[in-house]
């Protein structure tokens, strides 16, 4: 059973980061900001991103930055570097909201040894 913590209001009226437990093979749908940079903190030290969408992606350390100027969904597969045996599957749903920070946590059954 996955546990999803919804974004909470941060001090000064901001939106706190959202933490999502993810499992390999299960696609998570996440609302992100359209026309802004979104930040996805992954559990992988050096993630690789695969997508066919027109959204811009950039990886810095364990963080994936994503920006989309369209409201079209963005599908991402995020893997731990060269290891293709485990992939986090995300569908990002861009909306006219402020930028988001999403923190991904692997479910216990998917922790890499």
Fold and architecture overview:
- It is a single chain.
- Helix content is 0%, strand content 44%.
- The protein contains no helices and 9 strands.
Keywords:
113 residues, mainly beta, 5-stranded mixed sheet, 4-stranded mixed sheet, globular, disordered N terminus
The count of helical stretches stands at: 0
Helix content estimate: under 10%
**How many strands in all?**
9
The largest beta-sheet arranges its strands as: 1-9-3-6-5
Largest sheet: 5 strands, mixed
Shape: globular
Query: Proportion of β residues?
Result: 35-45%
Distance between the termini: 21 Å
Mean pLDDT: 88
Q: SSE layout and pairings?
A:
Blueprint: E1 18-22, E2 27-33, E3 37-41, E4 48-50, E5 56-60, E6 63-67, E7 74-79, E8 88-95, E9 101-106
Parallel strand pairs: 1-9, 2-8, 3-9
Antiparallel strand pairs: 3-6, 4-7, 5-6, 7-8
In short:
The chain has 113 residues and is mainly beta.
